[in-house]
Amino acid sequence: MIKVSILVPVYKCEKFINQCVESLFSQAFDDVEFIFYDDCSPDASVSLIHQCLEKHPDRWEQVRIISAQQNSGVSIARNRLLVEAKGEYIWYVDSDDWIEPDAIRLLYETACSSKADIVSFGFYYEGISRCATVYHYKYKSVKECLKDVIGNNWGAVWRFFFRRSIATENSILFPVGYNVAEDYVFCIKYLFHVQNIISIDVPLYHHITYNTMSLVATQDIHSLVHQYEATIIVEDFLRKNKILQLYSKDLNLRKAYVLASFYRYFNRIWGGLYGPLWKRLVARWKRKAIALIYKHGLKSSK
């Protein structure tokens, strides 16, 4: 069995894919496969993967590029990658992100030495200013991690190193039709079946958020609806498995985040209406209040 499968969905990432692929092919770890899923990307992303591969001829036999017949979205891409993977462990890497040197070896050796079903690690969050914020997470138990993810603290699939058999044996897949929050659902269902977790207090991943073509950057009302629906899926899953009460406070944090996201969205597109509308509403309520006072005042005087 191959030790590690690196799974990369590819779509509209030509400005970032070279750094991503170079960071993968430059790893010292050898017992690995790299599977890319081209979701009908309209740019030069796939050509750039081939160009990078020419610089690393020793990786030819370890690379597979799967081409979709039509653009189907990130959930179907990730599900197909999971089906194609043969590694003992899998790691999803976004095509506009990149990983630290020797990250794969460190993750695999840590997972094996501790017999972990899942490995968490630190990461760099790189925003539009190009300045990186480092996030560290060190979990003492699976329950602690599950509470954290349910509560909306980075339930992202790229920040975990998964034992593949946990997902395949329990039929854990990404919900189809979602362009955001699909990994939130996957991570929670996966963690529910995990027996042990190990954390590496070292940042190994660079999460890029200044890609203007990414699904996160182009968030719209449909994305917010997906966030809401993913939360409902998780709530139903927790209820079905009789652990909703145990994690209700954490789920409420997630609900508050989704509610605030809706508010920020509508405030951004309709915020200019608030002032004039508020004045009109106050005036309307004032007229109604005066009418009621006048009406009841007349009745009481008779």
Automatic annotation (TrEMBL):
Alphabetical list of CDD domains matching this protein: Glyco_tranf_GTA_type
Keyword annotations of the record: Glycosyltransferase, Transferase
Keyword presence, Transferase: yes
UniProt keyword annotation of Acyltransferase present: no
Domain Glycosyltransferase 2-like: 5-138
Entries under InterPro entries matching the protein: Glyco_trans_2-like, Nucleotide-diphossugar_trans
Protein name (record): Glycosyltransferase involved in cell wall bisynthesis
Source organism: Bacteroides faecichinchillae
Lineage: Bacteria, Pseudomonadati, Bacteroidota, Bacteroidia, Bacteroidales
